[in-house]
Design a protein that fits this description.
This protein is an alpha+beta fold and 306 residues long. It contains 10 helices and 12 strands. It holds the Pfam family Exo_endo_phos.
């Protein structure tokens, strides 16, 4: 029985490096849990003094242990008066508590807010609770169901392009104009890696990666939103290559944003802020009633152009 369990855990760990579709991304989402199981299995077989199985268990446990330790290393800068706070919230079909959304943005002194699954009725409710006073500038648009993706900001914003995702959510491409300098913002909401649409999910990540590659290397850049992907998935890691993942920069370890408000505790980070041309100050999550995602925010320091 232990041998069978060890084989299953080993396969679960190895899947992290398999860039595939079908059910693979769903298994990858559980990598932190599988990694803890790998460590627990090693401790168990070591205690039972099963030498051969213990060696196998050690080999399986090493990758998640190393990844776990490196995720605790921080590379941040001190807070400053002109930091840029970016927050992303998936509103779950417009069901999120609008008062709490606005309050969270106010409490964190958010400069730019990315909202996914923002319906017209949800936007009206947000405006009734003071969104226009807090974040008066908008790009992108609300839409029915999961199709609405928009950005609200304290800064002037200019829509560069509205990248279509077919029957899925749009992805506004925006120029944000600040007193410290401009930056390009891509609001992200990819399809979920469910079996019937996992090909669309993978295509969306590839499209984002290709878009990133087309931009000049010195272009300040932020990608924020619901990526429906974690660092355990090769497609996400390819997209994040050359960018700063805020949660990794802060050494947050096992950062989690989904699910929220259910019997199952959060176990995976689907919501991210990636950047280039910024240093990271801090990051964190905020609970919002009515949505299955935690809000995720990152405080960034714009770096001077060389």
């Amino acid at each position: 029985m232990l041998v069978v369990l060890q084989v299953l855990i080993g396969l679960g760990v190895a899947v992290r490096w398999l860039d595939a579709t079908w059910q693979v991304p769903i298994v990858q989402a559980f990598f932190p849990v599988i990694g803890m199981a790998a460590v627990a299995m090693f401790v168990l077989v070591a205690a039972l003094r099963y030498r051969v199985l213990g060696l196998c268990a050690l080999l399986v446990a090493v990758p998640p242990l190393v990844l776990g330790m490196t995720s605790l290393h921080s590379d941040t800068v001190a807070a400053g008066p002109h930091d840029e706070v970016v927050m992303t919230i998936n509103l779950e079909y417009g069901h999120a508590d609008p008062a709490r959304v606005v309050a969270a943005a106010r409490e964190r002194r958010v400069d730019t807010l990315v909202l996914e699954e923002c319906t017209p009725s949800e936007l009206r409710a947000l405006r009734r609770h003071g969104l226009d006073d807090l974040l008066p500038h908008q790009a992108g648009s609300a839409g029915p169901g999961l199709t609405g993706t928009l950005v609200r900001s304290t800064h002037r914003v200019r829509l560069v392009a509205e990248h279509s995702a077919g029957r899925f959510a749009g992805s506004p491409d925006i120029q944000v104009v600040t007193a410290q300098g401009d930056y390009r913002l891509r609001a992200v909401h990819t399809p979920a890696p469910l079996p019937d649409i996992v090909g669309d999910w993978r295509s969306a990540l590839r499209s984002l990666t290709a878009w990133r590659d087309r931009l000049p290397d010195d272009q300040r850049l932020v990608l924020a939103g619901d990526f429906n992907a974690s660092s355990a998935m090769p497609g996400y890691r390819k997209l994040a290559d050359g960018l700063t993942d805020s949660s990794r920069a802060t050494g947050s370890g096992w950062q989690r944003t989904w699910p929220h408000g259910t019997w199952l505790p959060p176990f995976v980070q689907l919501d991210h802020v990636l950047s280039r041309g910024f240093a990271v100050v801090a990051d964190g999550t905020v609970p919002i009633a009515g949505t299955d995602h935690l809000g995720y925010w990152a405080r960034l320091r714009m770096q001077r152009a060389e």
